Amino acid sequence: MTKRDLVVKIAADTNLIQSDVANVVQKTLDYIAEELVSGRNIELRNFGVFEIKVRKSRKGRNPNKPEVTVAIPERVVVKFRAGKELRERIAKLVSQ
């Protein structure tokens, strides 16, 4: 699903104008990004948590030349941890 698909679906369900929905969706994503860039986590109840993690530096290998090790520097990444309700709904996919 793309952002455009999401906008069309929300607009159809709420009878709002697509341009207004697109603005709200974009503002939501902008605010989430701002918080993450500021180093703060985002918790959306029953959905999940976006959190900032520091991935430690480590040694890796080039698959084409496995005998050569490469230093992979430390970096900051965004992790998503699904909330309880979302995990339960996804778990039902396996049992189908």
State the share of residues found in helices, binned by percent: 40-55%
* Uncertain parts: none
- Can you count the helices? 3
Number of strands: 5
- Sheet/helix structural class: alpha+beta
* Sheet of most strands: 3 strands, antiparallel
Whole-Å distance between the termini? 22 Å
- Overall mean pLDDT score? 93
- Nearest-angstrom radius of gyration? 19 Å
- What is the approximate shape? elongated
SSE string, helices as H and strands as E: HHEEEEEH
How much of the residues is beta strand, in percent? 25-35%
Sheet with most strands: strand arrangement: 1-2-5
Question: What would you note in describing this structure?
Answer:
With 96 residues, the chain is an alpha+beta fold. It has helices at 3-14, 18-37, 84-94, and strands at residues 42-44, 48-55, 58-62, 65-72, 75-82. It has a three-stranded antiparallel β-sheet with strand order 1-2-5. It has a two-stranded antiparallel sheet with strand order 3-4. Helix 1 (3-14) packs across helix 2 (18-37). The longest helix has 20 residues, at 18-37.
